Amino acid sequence: MFYREAGDFKTSYKDDNQTFPIKFDRYRYYAVLLFGFAVVPFLIDDYWVNAIFMPFLIYAIAAIGLNILVGYCGQVSLGTGGFMAVGAYAVYKLMTAFPDVNIFFHVIIAGAITAIVGLLFGLPSLRIKGFYLAVATLAAQFFLVWLFNRVPWFYNYSASGQISAPERTVFGVPVTGAETSAWATYLFCLVFVFLSAIVARNLTRGSVGRKWMAIRDMDIAAEIIGVNPLKAKLSAFAISSFFIGISGALFFAVYLGAVEVGEAFGINKSFLVLFMVIIGGLGSIFGSFAGAAFLVLLPVLLKNTLVGGLGWPTDLAAHLEFMIVGGLIITFLVAEPHGLAQLWRVAKQKLRLWPFPH
Amino acid sequence: MKLKLITAAAATLMAAAPAMAELVFPSLSYRTGPYAANGIPFADGYADYFTLLNERDGGIGGEPIRMVECETGYNTEKGVECYEATKGEGSLVYQPLSTGITYQLIPKVTADGIPMHSMGYGRTSAKNGEVFRNIFNYPANYWDGASHAVTHILNENDGDISDKTIALVYHNSAYGKEPIRTLEELSKKHGYDLTLLPVDHPGQEQKSQWLQIRREKPDYVVMWGWGVMNQVAIQEAVNIRYPMENFIGIWWSGSENDVKPAGAGAHGYKALTFHNFGTDYPLYDDLQEYVIDAGKAAGAGDQVGTVLYNRGMYAAMLAAEAAKTAQEIHGTSAITSEMMRDGMEALEMTEEKMAELGLPNFGPEFTVTCENHGGNGYGAVAQWDAEAGEWNMITDYFQSDQEVLAPLIEADSMAYAEENDIEPGCD
User: Fold this and answer.
1) B51: phi > 0 → left, psi -120 to 50 → alpha, else beta; which?
2) CATH 3.40.50.2300 boundaries in chain B
3) d(Cα A128, Cα B401) in Å, to the nearest integer?
């Protein structure tokens, strides 16, 4: 009824090819943006930012990054935690070495450094595929964590091997360190999420993204029609690592403030982000957000319901949480193997015809 | 949309208003995850002591205590979530029982004006209260522990260990790396050789480290382990027939959980401690009467009297005593977290005080001041008796080598102050 193309006339190819061709979708998107940028910062407190929004936003960037590699280019990677660690340690070294440069640029440079590291670890993808590639990226995960634990230069020779973020400001407002206010850190992360999502969306529907998808669907066929696998695969590794590096940098500098590489960026992190991508939906930007939301928000919601609402013992609640989240993952994937993004797509298709499906 | 629905649902749940006129003690515990076996007894002891105070005395100074438990799973992200969730309720003091979470929270609690007590863990240089105004780590810290171990070895060798070798088996994390600098400094002073053997989280795989120990035969092995790593290390030591009396663990590697799996082979294993063992104290009679028999014990109630249970109880007791001190200083029973900080800074534990509480000879005597947030650095060595199934103190409390430690603490805390633009001082 209200959700349809009819009556929404396009007069140029540009209009026809926009991300949200349906008027209702477009306005909804603007409304979400307006809400995120102009309403949420006034409403949130420390709890909302540190327990809900910040992990959601930062994991969403990581999921977008991994989705480019796994979802769009079809290269399975288990090295996400290691690449996030590269972003975190890069931003730490930059923050302490060049304290006068704005943290915003440090985060982007940290992403670029991660892209170079990702490129190096992407080289085996030219020879090996599928599960074998997963094992090669797993080596990256373990190697990088070991490296940051082993070489004291990375943690500036501190006694404990922990890195902690000193205070840095954007326009005079602290976004890292202890004295941050909730809205500032939230907006700082939101800007990165917004930019990452736009860049990723436009990359994936342009020629670069089409090449990735050609490689994903059948690499030999792609090569025959003129896609250079070297460029396509390595660009996917580099761009994916760029986003993952940014998320790692924000994860350390803005969200946690102090990390220890083995604990924060272990193999569990790689799996967590991979699950986000799979549950959210491979090859979908919306899916990255949905997956991150599912795995970040659901445990917090369950915990607050079971412990805060019902007053159950914390250990019982923690165990139940594992079972419920695990059960829901299985249920979702059985009901819709292509993830939450596909559910969303089906819902939109149905809505287009509603209320007269025939 | 989904996000909005979820957050809206969470908002209604989070809206439970904090009740006033209560003393809120958050307990960031871990009853799940790889370190649960150690987290559970500590959390139980911590909770039971506060339950006892509520049931027997009606709280502290007439104010009832409310303990808010939050499960961290020894995970720093969940630790942050727990901190943010509980700090708004008027929390008086945080005790996260995790060095990683402690590091995370040091800047946050300082900004929020809430004290944190990392008893025998956390950042050692927090002992310098001029820099770390809100962080306390009395009665002893890791560097004290390293020094205690070396002093004990010195005493066993009549003061000369220049021809000895010591191997440090440590958890490869912030926690395990803490003693390295101290042990290196002490090796310069006493002339022993130090071998470092890191073990990665969670520590189930230690074959290569113990193979190296078997090959190199260090005279002493010192261990900084936690959770399953302890059990595996002790079992491995038994397997290679390493003499147990030369194997010394830090206080976090010295509970029943760690030695029991190795059975009789673990007999003679030593661990450091800063409090006493067992249930042979008058306080336990009250605990039995008011908490356990009343069916109010935390958890399954099967941990009473274990080493870590006693340590959790000791932590709660020190927190309660600090709260009492704060009430005296400020002349009000409804204290805030800032007042609690003052109370912790003026805390004085004497033998009379402990005897009065029903815990005679339980812990070392110490005094906290603004300059010294870490107590006097007294600790003791305990030994496991596998036949009797109990830990016994084999030394009196002795002081760590302050001559070596003080400059290290000064240097590390001043480096932190410089990095974070802190003006050290007591105002």
Assistant:
1) alpha
2) 19-140+277-376, 142-273
3) 57
What does CATH list as the number for B19-140+277-376? 3.40.50.2300
- Taking contacts as CB-CB distances below 8 angstroms, the residues of chain B near A319 are 32
Instruction: Spell out the residues 6+ positions from residue B274 whose beta carbon is closer than 8 angstroms to its own.
Output: B120, B139, B140, B251, B363, B364, B378, B379, B380, B397
Measured between CB atoms, which of A166, A297, A314 is closest to B6? A297
**Is A293 in contact with B2 (Cβ distance < 8 A)?**
yes
What CATH topology corresponds to B142-273? Rossmann fold (3.40.50)
3-state SS class at B191: coil
3-state DSSP assignment of residue B349: strand
**pLDDT tens track for A279-303:** 999 999 999 999 999 999 999 999 8
Q: What is the ipTM of this complex?
A: 0.87
For chain A, the structural domain boundaries read 44-353
pLDDT in tens, B87-110: 888 899 999 998 889 988 998 899
| CATH, range A44-353 | 1.10.3470
CB-CB neighbors (< 8 A) of B178 in chain A? 159-160
Using DSSP bridges, classify how beta strands A163-164 and A258-259 pair: parallel, antiparallel or unpaired: antiparallel
Which of A 67-126 lie inside 8 A of B, CB atoms?
none
Can you tell me which residue has the tokens 């991979």? Answer: A274
